[in-house]
Design a protein that fits this description.
The complex is a heterodimer of chains A (about 550) and B (about 525). With about 550 residues, chain A is an alpha/beta fold. Helices cover about 30% and strands about 20% of the residues of chain A. Chain A is built from 15 helices and 21 strands. An 8-stranded mixed beta sheet of chain A has the order 1-20-16-19-18-17-9-10. In chain A, strands 2, 3, 12, 13, 14, 15 and 21 form a 7-stranded mixed beta sheet that branches. The radius of gyration of chain A is 24 Å and the shape is globular. Chain B folds into 2 domains: about 240 residues, Growth Hormone, Chain: A (Up-down Bundle); about 240 residues, Rossmann fold (3-Layer(aba) Sandwich). In chain B, about 55% of the residues lie in helices and about 15% in strands. Chain B contains 18 helices and 11 strands. The chains are: A alpha/beta (about 550), B alpha/beta (about 525). Chain B: It is found in: Cell membrane. Chain B: It is a multi-pass membrane protein.
Chain lengths: ~550, ~525
């Protein structure tokens, strides 16, 4: 077995060097991480921060006309572009700050595998989300419908088994719900919680709409459920006597995973929504199944891009908006050519986070965006680690999602999970996700931006060592990505307060908004929904 | 040891002339040590030779080269002994401790490392060389210690007498007592302990060892403890190594990047193991391979083009070649180590009749799943002969998605057959394969037979229509198991292996691997 053999050889070498090196005179122990290549990446924060002082940007040298200018090439912007194209408005221009569109669904690749830099899966969708299903069918992810009417998903896109495992004190159990060493009382609380979720999954408000659903815009307005948005999830769990540490760990994990915030920071509605909104159905999969690709949701982004034929300009920062008699004039700066352009559009879609929209609308009155720092955006670290092997502890084998109980990170996913190869002894890429939730977001963000690669690397390696003791010699490459504004967190009052609805209202039918910031929940389905909602608003005006 | 002690003159041990030794029996003690260490030395040599022929096969070569290397290393040791100066007794005790550790650990180390090290031979000969050098140092050193105790002619006579007595003892008790009673690992450990005991006795009985007695004593105690622990867990160690699993003599073994191939032979049969799992026994493999090939091929008299997935032993291809109308047979097996072995090894060529070297046969070494997805040829028949679905990687080769891809490779009216584990020992697994094939829209015909070395074994025929018949066409002459009547019998499933409901095996549930673990769990734990 080559992996075991090289494992023995490498651990032997590691042991020998650990034992011998300190003893040899004049031969200090070398840096145990010296063999790991890699770099620190991230969204182009430096260019983005030009927004704070646009006077440093050269004045525009030429002019460009378009019907619709879309600023921001994340999922919302791309979904809007696709929708506009399919409904008669193909004269659009999308500008994107980064080198490629994709936003939180960016991806990278190396010799071992493609891998995600952000969002990496899509739960099997609700069958009522027909717009999403139509898109997935065109993407080849949904291959048809069974006689009973349920969608059939592409077997190669459904996450392959084994899907999840949890490391508790060195032992890997199946699934992420802790089961090892739970007392009867603990188990009873888990059972009560999941029973509650089953009830909430089918619950409807007095208006006949689902209590919880995706997109959340379709959820019931019934106060009985919406009042859950007023208290934190943690307070709700205390009130409902969900107190056992294992359950609280699990629920807190879920909040950090989907929202980049803790159960004490997000609202009870959001905390419950994470579980109760998962009601997808399929002929060949269940509601708990997910669709995934080695490159994560970048697969979906590439499909979104491919399903419309309209220009996308990368490396381009929009830095000012101004109303004119006929529409909107936007100033853009191309980082690659170092030239600025005046773009004249009849309509502009701001598919950017709210704090960016704020900067762009400095000279435009009448918008109802909340104050810039009112949203909670935790910074995230994503580490893509190329490993020659993973020393396997006792229990379940390597799975798609691998989590350790009480771990400060969220664990890692195996980017090579969907591989069909029999020989999986080659290098793998694993993607470690780490929302930096220990400090207030602004503070954590500043610290994250100031932390150099040389400081991140030992932290990431130490974290991985808690999953796989002795893994360090196997690490070949560690590329790290810091997301300053990882994702919006649904803090109490955000989802069902009046401010969120007001914020997405168009400005004089010329400036429109689409971003998951306007949903309050940062998932693919919400970005997709926001893009289509905004596109429909724009088309209605024409 | 006491009976071997003999009285002798008692001058100093280290240097002549000196004060008389306090104990006149001490030189006798050393002569007894000669017998013990000679026994130990030969035992180590026998262990290395036996282990090498056990693990590597070809016992004549292994024994011959091990003995040669060992004796040569002893020669090096003897030569090196002249560089040892100073207090010789201290050197001797050191040497015994080292021999005890190295020799004692030789068998456990070789057994354990066999599967893991890249070059087992290198490790083997390194250990043999090291032990040989250490053992080679022993006698010259002892002779120098004793040189002023006896006249030279007496010294030589006595030392070598005891040396050869020890050798005789070793050569008799090794095959008659030690291997049957203790096994190789424990024998190795016991003789390591004897070397340590010699060191301990010398340490205690010779007063000049006093300055370092405590330190050396602790070392000996620690080494004895280590060997003792290994002795207690010897069976666990052996169970951990694969060797216990194989009955019969290993005549070939090789670790390829994909699997460990082991061939064993006993007077009755040749057996092939992949990763420790029996693939076939030459005594009854004809049953398995006739049943795999003929029910499918007899019903396809028009077949010209056949695809075989897995089956790198060429035995299914041997059966296929009995149909003269076939124009091309393409075999896709992951492991070149496997197909090359069955293309070149004479014993195996006799078994598969050189099928893989037949001009009609094309052998491709590729990962079947990916290969099938990119293949564009269509086949009249496809034979799927993968290892059992014992892990998640192989489980993918039994998935609905894979069968969908495979069905696209059939011509209209074409058909495939899938080896589907045992319907008796792994009933859920067998029916899961059948249901998975049915789930992708194929008409299935499950069947089974008894293969003595496997037990009840099952297959599933699958095709787009219901036209298959068990008495459709002529069978090749000379078959030993398959007749129209046996085909008919194979279709019947008695109640203890009749159809049971199962899930369909999909990539996203790997139901089959889970069934397989459940089914086989009671047999392996």
């Amino acid at each position: 077995m080559p992996t075991r053999r090289s494992f023995l050889a490498q651990s032997g070498a590691a042991l020998t060097s650990a034992l011998l090196l300190p003893a040899l005179p004049g031969c200090a122990p070398t840096n145990p991480l010296a063999h790991i290549k890699g770099q620190l990446l991230g969204p182009d924060a430096a260019t983005g921060h030009l927004l704070r002082d646009p006077s440093r940007i050269p004045t525009p040298t030429h002019t460009l006309d378009t019907d619709v200018l879309i600023i921001g090439g994340g999922v919302a912007g791309l979904a809007a572009r696709r929708w506009l194209h399919r409904h008669g408005q193909s004269n659009t221009l999308l500008v994107e700050l980064a080198g490629e569109a994709g936003g939180n669904s960016s991806a990278g690749h190396n010799a071992a595998s493609a891998y995600p830099w952000g969002a990496h899966y899509l739960p099997v969708p609700d069958v009522r989300n027909v717009e999403l299903l139509a898109f997935l069918q065109e993407a080849g992810t949904l291959t048809g419908y069974a006689p009973g009417g349920l969608p059939i998903y592409n077997d190669y896109h459904l996450c392959h088994d084994p899907e999840e495992r949890l490391n508790i004190q060195g032992h890997w159990q199946e699934g992420l719900v802790p089961s090892l060493g739970l007392s009867a009382a603990d188990q009873a609380q888990f059972a009560r919680f999941f029973k509650l979720i089953e009830t909430l999954k089918t619950a409807r408000g007095r208006d006949g709409r689902d209590a919880f659903c995706i997109p959340l815009a379709h959820a019931s307005t019934d106060e009985a459920y919406r009042q859950l948005d007023q208290l934190t999830f943690a307070a709700y769990l205390d009130r409902e006597q969900f107190t056992t540490p294992a359950l609280r760990w699990y629920l807190n994990y879920a909040c950090r995973d989907d929202y980049g915030a803790t159960a004490a920071q997000v609202s009870a509605w959001a905390g419950l929504h994470y579980f109760a909104s998962r009601k997808g159905r399929a002929h060949n999969a269940g509601s708990g199944d997910v669709l995934t690709w080695p490159e994560g949701n970048n697969f979906l982004v590439k499909s979104l891009i491919g399903q419309a034929d309209a220009p996308i300009q990368p490396h381009t920062l929009a830095y000012a908006l101004r109303e004119t008699a006929t529409g909107i004039e936007a100033l853009t700066y191309n980082v690659a050519t170092r030239q600025s352009t005046r773009v004249r559009a009849r309509q502009v879609l701001l598919a950017t986070p709210q704090h960016v929209a704020h900067r762009l609308l400095t000279a435009v009155p009448g918008h109802q965006l909340p104050p810039p720092d009112s949203l909670h955006h935790a910074p995230w670290l994503v580490a893509n680690l190329t490993v020659a092997g993973l020393p396997q502890g006792p229990g379940r084998p390597l799975s798609w999602d691998n989590v350790r109980y009480d771990s400060p990170s969220l664990g890692y996913i195996n980017a090579t999970q969907q591989s069909l190869k029999q020989d999986d002894s080659g290098p793998k890429v694993i993607s470690l996700y780490w929302p930096l939730t220990d400090e207030a977001p602004a503070l954590a963000r500043r610290r994250a931006y100031q932390t150099p690669y040389a400081e991140w690397l030992p932290r990431v390696v130490a974290e991985l060592e808690t999953y796989h003791p002795g893994v360090t010699p196997y690490l070949q490459q560690a590329d790290l990505w810091v997301w300053g504004h990882g994702m919006v967190a649904p803090t109490p009052g955000l989802l069902w307060g009046a401010a969120r609805q007001a914020a997405m209202r168009p400005v004089r039918n010329r400036i429109f908004f689409a971003h998951t910031d306007f949903s309050g929940i940062s998932i693919f389905e919400e970005g997709f929904y926001q893009g289509i909602r905004a596109a429909k608003e724009m088309l209605a005006v024409i | 040891m006491a009976e071997l002690l003999e009285a002798g003159p008692a001058p100093s041990l280290t240097a002549a002339p000196g004060p008389p030794a306090p104990d006149a029996r001490l030189p006798g003690l050393l002569l007894a040590a000669v017998a013990v260490i000679a026994t130990c030395g030969l035992i180590y040599e026998l262990i290395a030779g036996t282990l090498a022929s056990y693990l590597l096969g070809d016992s004549v070569t292994q024994f011959s080269t091990i003995i040669g290397a060992y004796l040569f290393a002893m020669g090096i040791g003897s030569w090196l002994s002249k560089f040892l100066d100073g207090p010789l007794l201290r050197w001797f005790i050191r040497l015994e401790i080292l021999v005890g550790i190295v020799g004692g650990c030789m068998a456990p180390l070789l057994f354990l490392s066999f599967e893991y090290v890249a070059s087992f031979r290198l490790l083997l000969y390194t250990l043999v060389g090291l032990t040989g050098i250490l053992v080679g140092l022993e006698i010259p050193l002892l002779m120098r210690i004793l040189e002023h105790r006896y006249p030279f002619k007496d010294l030589v006579a006595r030392v070598f007498t005891f040396d050869y007595i020890g050798a005789l003892l070793a050569s008799l008790i090794f095959p008659l007592v030690l291997v049957p009673q203790l096994g190789l690992i424990r024998t190795s450990l016991v003789f390591g302990a004897l070397n340590l005991a010699v060191a301990a006795v010398v340490l205690v009985r010779f007063p000049e060892t006093r300055p370092y007695r405590r330190r050396f004593g602790a070392g000996i105690a620690a080494a004895l403890l280590g060997l003792g622990v290994l002795f207690v867990f010897a069976n666990k160690l052996l169970a951990y190594t694969e060797t216990l699993a194989f009955q019969g003599q290993v005549i070939y073994s090789k670790s390829t990047p994909y699997q460990r191939i082991v061939l064993t032979r006993n007077p009755r049969e040749l057996r092939l193991f992949l990763n420790g799992n029996l693939q076939f026994s030459s005594a009854d493999e004809y049953r398995y391979h006739e049943a795999l090939v003929h029910p499918l091929l007899q019903a396809l008299p028009q077949a010209r083009r056949v695809l075989v997935l897995g089956g790198g032993d060429g035995l299914a291809v041997r059966e296929l070649l009995k149909y003269k109308q076939l124009q091309s047979i393409r075999l896709v097996d992951l492991d070149p180590g496997m197909t090359e072995l069955f293309q070149h090894n004479e014993l195996l060529l006799a078994l598969n009749k050189g099928s893989l070297n037949n001009p009609k046969v094309q052998v491709l070494n590729a990962d079947a799943y990916q290969w099938v997805r990119q293949d564009t040829t269509r086949y009249d028949a496809i034979i799927v002969d993968f290892p059992d679905p014992g892990n998640y990687s192989i489980g993918k080769l039994y998935s609905a998605a894979f069968y969908t891809a495979l069905a696209k490779r059939l011509v209209p009216g074409g058909r495939m057959v899938v080896q589907s584990t045992s319907p008796y020992l792994a009933r859920q697994s067998f029916w899961c394969v059948a249901h998975t094939l049915a789930a992708v829209g194929l008409h299935t015909i499950p069947y089974h037979l008894y293969v003595p070395s496997f037990g009840e074994w099952g297959y599933v025929l699958a095709g787009p229509d219901t036209h298959w018949r068990g008495d459709a066409g002529p069978l090749p002459a000379g078959l030993r198991y398959i007749t129209p009547a046996t085909i008919h019998d194979m279709l019947r499933f008695p109640p203890d292996m009749s159809e049971i409901p199962t899930e369909v095996n999909q990539l996203n549930n790997q139901a089959l691997v889970r069934y397989f673990e459940e089914d086989w769990g009671p047999y392996v734990h």
